[in-house]
């Protein structure tokens, strides 16, 4: 899209403002799927008009005006006397929605239609809609990245290593499902919002997790994907300022992303925590993360799962070295995390912390409980950790078998190289 100054402007504005535009159009029309189509039509018109006539003074307002005029045309086609048409047309002149026409740069429409206070509600409503529990998780992720993040189907497909038609099908099915379920476009009432906020946060968490530790491909970190999740988390923290979990999620992202610069070497190879140059950690991100964590604590609601993970990330961020990290505190926090959000991954991470605080033997006992339960059977994480512990206990042959298993299960090229190097070092 961005090969001309006008097109570059379209791409930039769309990335920043698409959620507000789709949200506003959904509010005007009451039809989310149609609103997305209208926004896309406005985007297509901008791609023709802006390179030719220049970027309007209020680009987002221009897109919204065109989208709304298209909506009015649609209502006119559906019913000339439709009550909704009359309400929407009240502030607009006739004939302004001709394809290819250029809205006046100083038109009153830009000022009349653009209501920043209301738009924030629209973005929040859009996030709750895209992350509605009626949708499967994959569809929530795709729809959120599309309508809230402004990513194209191609970009989402590249991010999750799936074919573009798969992403398009997920988005199409999601919109049909929302329509069939008659999910309204609205910010849920406070009680419903609290109930559905975890779904929204969970989707953003999934996006960041995939960006922070890519499950496949040849990159260890998908900075673009993680960055998009950080942006969404900042939006959420601003829109639901009384949510400890929203601030906790943002804190976790900031503190985790702070280590990105040191997690890979010049060739993109992974750099383990004990070998990272901590001078390369992003100190500004650490300060932002700690500030977000403090805000989460000040809500008075107690830290949830994301906040506790942020506390662990903070322990790493402030430690001068691996040896001087407060591993005892990390163990305690993992124990708390395991009580409110139990999962095999939490148990495995707790085992790693136990190995650093108390030694490999008690940690191996915890890992073996996971093995006995059949947990994480398809993940390379468990054999990787078990192999590390066995090496520290001098059980080299068993460690080799674990790492060979981890190599077979590992879908990320960079991580597989690290495992193969460890195997080679065993001799």
TrEMBL record:
GO terms for molecular function: DNA binding; sigma factor activity. Residues 196-296 form the DUF6596 domain. Keywords: DNA-binding, Sigma factor, Transcription, Transcription regulation. It holds the Pfam family Sigma70_r2. The keyword RNA-binding does not apply. GO terms for biological process: DNA-templated transcription initiation. Residues 20-79 form the RNA polymerase sigma-70 region domain. InterPro entries: DUF6596, RNA_pol_sigma70_r2, RNA_pol_sigma70_r4_t2, RNA_pol_sigma_r2, RNA_pol_sigma_r3/r4-like, WH-like_DNA-bd_sf. The keyword Transcription regulation applies. Gene3D superfamilies: 1.10.1740.10, Winged helix-like DNA-binding domain superfamily/Winged helix DNA-binding domain (1.10.10.10). Residues 127-178 form the RNA polymerase sigma factor 70 region 4 type domain. Belongs to the sigma-70 factor family. ECF subfamily. This is RNA polymerase sigma factor, sigma-70 family. The lineage of its organism: Bacteria, Bacillati, Actinomycetota, Actinomycetes, Mycobacteriales.
């Amino acid at each position: 899209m961005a090969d001309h100054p006008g097109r570059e402007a379209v791409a930039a504005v769309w990335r920043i403002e698409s959620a507000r535009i789709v949200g506003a159009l959904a509010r005007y029309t009451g039809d989310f799927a149609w609103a997305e189509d209208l926004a896309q039509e406005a985007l297509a018109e901008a791609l023709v008009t802006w390179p030719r006539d220049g970027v309007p003074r209020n680009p987002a307002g221009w897109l919204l005006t065109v989208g709304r005029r298209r909506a009015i045309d649609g209502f006119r086609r559906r019913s000339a006397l439709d009550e909704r048409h009359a309400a929407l047309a009240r502030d607009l002149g006739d004939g302004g929605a001709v394809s290819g026409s250029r809205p006046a740069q100083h038109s009153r429409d830009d000022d009349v239609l653009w209501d920043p206070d209301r738009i924030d509600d629209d973005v929040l409503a859009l996030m709750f809609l895209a992350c509605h529990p009626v949708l499967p998780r994959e569809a929530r992720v795709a729809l959120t990245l599309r309508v809230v993040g402004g990513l194209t189907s191609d970009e989402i497909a590249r991010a999750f290593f799936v074919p573009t038609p798969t992403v398009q099908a997920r988005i199409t099915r999601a919109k049909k499902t929302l329509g069939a379920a008659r999910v309204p476009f609205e910010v849920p009432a406070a009680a419903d919002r609290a109930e559905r906020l975890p779904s929204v946060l969970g989707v953003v968490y999934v996006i960041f997790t995939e960006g922070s530790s890519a499950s496949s491909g040849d990159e260890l970190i998908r900075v673009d994907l993680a960055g998009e999740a950080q942006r969404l988390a900042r939006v959420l923290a601003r829109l639901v300022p009384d949510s400890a979990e929203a601030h906790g999620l943002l804190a976790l992202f900031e503190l985790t992303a702070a280590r990105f610069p040191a997690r890979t070497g010049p060739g993109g190879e992974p750099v383990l925590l004990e070998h990272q140059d901590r001078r390369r950690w992003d100190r500004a991100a650490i300060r932002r993360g700690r500030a977000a964590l403090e805000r989460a604590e000040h809500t008075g609601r107690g830290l949830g799962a994301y906040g506790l993970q942020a506390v662990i990330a903070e322990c790493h961020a402030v430690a001068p070295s691996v040896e001087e990290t407060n591993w005892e505190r990390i163990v305690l926090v993992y124990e708390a995390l395991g009580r409110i959000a139990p999962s095999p991954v939490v148990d495995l991470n707790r085992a790693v912390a136990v190995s650093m605080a108390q030694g490999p033997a008690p940690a191996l006992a915890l890992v073996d409980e996971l093995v006995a339960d059949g947990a994480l059977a398809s993940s390379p994480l468990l054999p990787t950790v078990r192999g590390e512990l066995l090496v520290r206990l001098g059980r080299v042959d068993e460690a080799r078998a674990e790492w060979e298993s981890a190599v077979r299960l590992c879908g990320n090229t960079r991580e597989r190289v690290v495992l193969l190097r460890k195997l080679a070092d065993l001799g």
